[in-house]
Model the fold of this input.
Amino acid sequence: VLNHPGALRKMFLPPSELNLGEAYIYGDFDVEGDLIAAFPMAEYLQSLDLGVGDKLGLARQLLALPNAAAPREGRQAAQVSGARHSRERDRQAISYHYDVSNDLYALWLDKHMVYSCAYFTDPDEDINAAQERKLDYICRKLRLQPGERLLDVGCGWGGLAIHAAKHYGVEALGITLSQPQVDLARERIEEAGLEDRCRVEYLDYREVAPEQPFDKLVSVGMFEHVGEAKMRVYFEQARDLLRPQGLFLNHAIARPGWQPSSKNHDTFSNHYVFPDGELVPVSLSSRVAEEIGFEVRDVESLREHYALTLRRWVRRLESRHDEALRHVDEVTYRVWRLFMSGSAHGFESGRLNVYQTLLVKPGPGGESGLPLTREDLYRT
Done:
């Protein structure tokens, strides 16, 4: 739906993903119905092999259209400064995305407020049940035992740390660079009566002091913020924080290995969603982890699970549009609707993937301490 005479010109001139995304979030056009279904059409348009004459002809037609636009008011593109993936710049980038409104996220996330893919047994399963299963599945993969020390890197609103402390008896520390997440996580820990063995701190992963080694480490949906240039620092810190035979589960979105690494930061996501976010192939992250001393023990793709999760998130957000506008402006609502719809298509089409990689820090003699089979992961 074109909302004013100048909409088409604003959408396609200049022709870019960023420009088209801005035209949508600032209201030049709307998409009624299933926004996810529009993305194959966009890919088709991008794939057209147009000659110079065709491009010039289209440009002349666009330039002949009215030159008007909806006001660019409301949420603006991220303005982060400093060296890329420095601690201060990472704080700015994380704040831009996660400090929007706890109330907004609560509208469409599950009751645990888990901001990563769920784990389904049935395509029609409730999001709450699937997210709780995912939390438990991670704890099983880590073989958590009562009294063990667990570090959750990028803990969000504390869902996994609380689950692990409550159901597995561990001493859990969660860290995040979002103060609103810290505040709500602490409220939830207090409500659960877990203050004696669960806490959340505002802390960069590079600032955790390795005074007493952790038994287990977990990182769910945080690795995308690390950056390819900092991968070695990330895995070295994880290695130094773990005891021998300690396990590290790294849950991360990845681009397929056949996709070239993009050096173009002028994308819609980089401007309006995840500033400085980077996706690397699981083959590359696994190789770096091995180079600094980890052993890769298990790799599992949850691609279809993320597609199902995102479709639920989009439907839940759309169904509560009016409520969302009590907490954020229309532009912010549209940013989340657009990026989650595009992500759903990305996982369905295979342009995106998500992996849980289980790593172990071997003992001095190479011991892993792991059982011979994976049977325990699926035991009821």
Summary: The chain has a mean pLDDT of 95. The radius of gyration is 22 Å. The CA atoms of residues 28 and 338 lie 14 Å apart. The chain is about 40% helix and 15% strand.
